[in-house]
Amino acid sequence: MRSGVSGRRAPVQDLAPPAGAGRKGPGRLVRAAAGRSAALLDAIPTGLAVAAVLVLFPAGCALAALAIGQDASYDLLNYHFYDPYAFLHGRLAIDVYPAQLQSLLDPLLDLPTYLLIEHAPPMLEAGALGAFQGLAPALVCFVARRAGASRAVSLAAGIAAATGGGFVSEIGGSMGDAEVAVPLLLAVLLALRAVEAGPSRSALRWWAASGLAAGIGSGLKLAELPIGLGIVLGSLAVGGGTRLRLLRLGAAAAGGLAGTLGTSGYWFWFLWRRYGDPIAFTQATFGIFHSPYVPTARLRGGFLPGSPLVGLVYPLRWLFEPTTVGEIDFRALSLPLAYLLSASLLAALTVRFVRSLPARAGWGRGRAVLPARAEAGVVGGQGAPAMLDADRYLLVAFSVGLGVWMAVFSVYRYLIPLELLSPVVVLAAARRLAALVEGSSTRRRPRLATLARLAVVPGVLVAFAACVVTTSPGNYWERVPFGRTFFSLRTPALLENGRVDALVEVGGLPMGYLFPQLPPRIIGIGGIGDLLTDANRVLVHRALARVRRDGGTLNVVFVDLPARPGLEMPKGTAAYLADLGAPGLVATACEVVEAGIGAGHQRLKLCRLGPAPG
User: Fold this and answer.
1) C-beta of residue 467 within 8 angstroms of C-beta of residue 527
2) What is the dihedral of CA 489, 109, 279, 286, to 10 degrees?
3) DSSP 8-state assignment for residue 158
4) In the chain, domain spans
5) Per-residue pLDDT tens for 348-401?
6) How do residues 373-388 score in pLDDT, each as one tens digit?
């Protein structure tokens, strides 16, 4: 499997040991079988191998999406379906945060999901989404191949990526991280193509293309910006002088800026004109522009490690306590393993550097930081400089992305693109550690050098197998059996008056998915208790004034529970309505509504409000 980006063949890490090695011992049959398997894969024509990967992984993910079930996650019900609807139907200036703060998110990423839900059967929607997500592990195969792995190791890397706990939990779902992984992994593939092109003008074009793909992915979902940043800054790790490194960085950064503005620039402009803040949806976290519509009191917290010392072991901690970085229970070994090997390599290089300081200062013989043999060693392959640069790029891009993510978000699902890339990072770190051991070996330890060289591929394959068998997504972000339609909702009788009515959410209900199924004259007002600034009160007052002018009604909607019989509403509703500018109102009539979600349903209660009697 070649990457398909260029006709030049990437250097290959052979499975078979060098001639004369391993002729005796219990591992001979295993090595022979591995060699024969690798030979069979290598015999497949390149075009057929690429086509097979591009078909099998998407097809497998599409089938997995059908087996898992229809998406019914809180985020889909809250904003993934509503935001593109509001954008396409001009609701942005009518409704008032019906999807809470997420009403301010860029709808472009969710647009295909919305169109599929509206115009395709639910099973077709899930299958199509799963097939697109399946391109991500296919790209992992191509990245591994371009980084110098054999076809067998590349295929194993793709399988390990496709079975990662975070990725599997999102297959067929609308969370967006698995979809954004496609352009981000394409960016890594293009960067490795640039590494192969060497110090040339064509290489700068490849770097710009890599940055463009990274910017497209980051712009579609800004929570992935740390990973895009790592992909761009990884260009500094490739060998060359300072001027050449800066040129590469400039090309990648220019491409990244163009890609980000291409997918989210229009939304930045809209938010600036309407809310005075181009990134208003992040203000609760960063508070840069101080928009009057979004309070800055909601500070960062939640899943952040808390201190740099905790951050050093954070990836190892969440392997045993996954809910420290996510809302669902899962097991995923690949990313913590990539982190452990990368950290071990950094520690080993640091030790060698410290030991070399006396020699650098002229105090003694000392040793070089990394002997020439280790620098050039490929551990059984060809094309040493390109492979060394590829490994450096992968390790730096991974480390920067992980570090920035940990400092800003620490929400695991935002890290799914790096989870997918982790098997290739494991390979790169293993090769550099083996090269380091081989380069530091002396004549007294030739067997150690040989063992390090021969153990890379078998060790990596064992690691990939461990990643596959230990993966365990605790759930799939709420799924239900497929129904004949994705959503179904009959317009409640209380809203069948032909006038402009307002529907206010109370009690923490995700209600965004209701409005595309209701008459467009109904104004949605979300549960905006955390967003009740003076500026937002003005928006609510305008909406309520429009209802009064048209002679419409004010209604609330909440989850129907046996503990709330008759006209009873959730606790705190009266105080909340007073904050909205509608004090002294009580429920005058209620109606139970069943909102269909696939083969299941959500039982809601809708109550019309009016003055208290007497």
Assistant:
1) no
2) 90
3) H
4) 28-473, 487-611
5) 888 888 887 777 666 655 444 333 333 434 333 334 567 889 999 999 999 999
6) 334 343 333 345 678 8
